[in-house]
Amino acid sequence: MVFSIEMLYLNDINICMNKSKIGVVGMGVMGSALARNIESRGWKTSVYNRSPEKIDKFRAEFEKNDHKFESHKQLKRFVNSLAKPRKIILMIKSGKPVDSFIDDILPLLDKGDILIDGGNSYYKETAKRYDFLKSKGIEFLGMGVSGGEIGALKGPSIMPGGSEIAWKESKEILESIAAKDFKGKPCVNYMGPLGSGHLVKMVHNGIEYGIMQMLSEVYQILRNGYQLEPQVIGEMFRRFNEGKLKSYLVEICEPILKEIDAETGKPLIDLILDKAGQKGTGRWTARDAIEYGVETSMISQAVHARVSSSFKKKRVKLSKSYSFGDMNAQPKTSLEVIIPKLENAIYAAWIVVMEQGLSMIKDIAKELEWEIDIKEVLRVWQGGCIIRAALLEDAHKSLKNGSILNSKWSERSLENAYQDWKDVVVEAVQIGIPTYVLSAGLTSLINGVSAQSSANLIQGMRDYFGAHRYERTDSKDGTFHNHWYDVE
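and the corresponding C-alpha cells:
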C-alpha cells in the first residue's frame, strides 16, 4: 500500500484530535471532582493516579461511554495521551509529594509542556518550582483552587500564578470550569508571577479560618450562654443568611446545626468532638504575617483557637478545678436584643478580617515585587470559593489603594455595628464564652482607627533597658536616647 503525503497528514491530525486536551493527576476527592468538571465542559480529559485502585474506582464510577475520559495506571501512557503542549493539573498533597511527582514526570515531558499545581502548596515553594521548571523548559502555574468538592465539580474559584504562557494556554479551559462572579464572569484570572496564585489562596484560607471561628463563637454564645437547642440556632443562621450575612459559610451552619444523628436521635453537632483540625494554610498565613510585619490578629487568633481546642483532655481535666470554666453565668442581655447585635458583630468582624487578609496580600506582594491586582482578587472570590459572600460586592466596589477601610461603605458599616460588636464581646466575657476572633477583631479595629496608641510606653521601656531609641512627637527629627539612670 502506498501512502500519500496527504494521507499521512490527515492521519497525524486524527491522532492529535483523539488526544486529550488536558490531564489531571490525583484522583482523590478534589482531583476526581475537578476532572469531572473539566470533562463535563466538553474537554477530553486524561486522568492518572499513582495508586491503581483509585483509577479502578474512577473507571467504575465515571468512565462511561458518554464521557470523554481516558484513565491511566501508567504515567508514560498518561503523558502520551495528551495533546501538545501538554497541560497537566496536579491535585496531590503539597510538599514533598509534589516535588517527587515532578521528578518522575519531568523526563517524559517536552519543552513547552505545562504543569499546573492545583493543591494547597506554600507559595515560596511554588516560586522555587517555577524557577526550576523554567530552567528545564517547562511552563509552571501554581494554582489556588477553592470551593471544596462541590466547588471543584460545579465551579470553583481559581487563582493561578506563575507562567503567563501557561495561563494563556490554559485560560479557555480554566474559564470554562470556574464559578461565576456577581456579573456572570468567570471567577478566575492570572494573579501574578511565581507563587502569586498560591499566596492569594493561602490568605484566602487564613480569612476562612477567621470567619469560621467567629461563627463558632456566636454559636457558642447561643448554645452555652443562652442554652438554645442547635436546631433553634440553625434557624437563626438561616435568617442571617437571608440578609446582609448571605454567604456560603453562614448558609452551611443551618444544615449542620439541624442535623439529627440517626443512631441516637440527638443533634449531631452535640456528638462531634470539639477538636478542630487544620492542614497548615492558616498557620502559614499567621507565621508569614509576623515575618512581613502585617497585622492579621484575627487570623492568628483563629489558628490559636484551633490549637487550643486540640488539648481536649487537658481542658476537661482543668475544667474540674476552675469554677469559671463551666460557662454557666446568666446572660444580662435578652435573647431578642442580642440576636441583631450578633448579626451586626459578625458583619463588622467579616469586614475587618477581609481587610487584614487583603493588606497581607498587598504588603507581601510589594515586598516580593509581585504585581497582584487586589480588586481582581476580590472579584475572583465572589463565586465558588469558601469565603464567598454578598458583602464582597460592596467590598469590591469600595476598594481603594488595596484597602476596603478607605470607603464610605466600610465607615458607615463599622460605625453602625461598633456598639453592637462591643456589646457582644462584653456579654461573652460576662457569661464566660471565649471569643478569640471577635475580641481580636474589635481590638484591631479600635487600635487601627485611633490616632494615639500605647506604643509610646513600649518605646520608652525599650529605650530604658536597651537604648533602642525613639522618635519624638514634636518638631525634632531623627531618633533619640534618653539617659534614664546613672551608671556608676
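(Above: one complete record from the training split.) Residues 147 and 385 are 4 Å apart (CA to CA).
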